[in-house]
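Annex B. Sample input.
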Amino acid sequence: MPNTLWTLLVAAVTAVVTTLAVGLFVTPRMEARKKRLGEVHTARDTFGANMLRVISACSLLQRFELLSADDPDWTPVMRERLTNERNRWLQQLDEATMWLLDNAATYAGSWPNARIIRFAIDYAGHARAIVLSEREETTKVELLLALTMPVQRQFFGYPWSRARHVLADHRAFATTIARISGEPSTP
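Annex B, continued. Sample output.
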């Protein structure tokens, strides 16, 4: 009987000490880590959402081009409405690329590979530079799409798609950057 009581007492003390140690030392560190990881994943999700916003706005701008003022199929009211929508889409591009550049350190630094980090930062910088440039609107839209599509697939595509297209996507990205650097920024 004394051995059983002694075993139960040791087990109880061990459980209390373990619980206290975990509560005092491990749990606070895990909570802090959980918060940091949550912020990183939120930034990554917003990164993806802004890339999709760029793709969406560019696609809409390509699809709904302004027609000439003397086109009889468009009334002045419809022309004004379309102009307002196009301005709203351009504003979305401005806001999305601004966020991408301003928060690059938050989301890019969360990936483990220096090459991937550089890819995200280069994308954000070049996308913002395109929006700020004095290029024609159609050229900006075309360049933004060409720049965004390979990056979006590499960060948010299915793993087999990323692996299959990694070389082609990096090549397309480099070609677009060369095109951006080679073209004059004024129309």
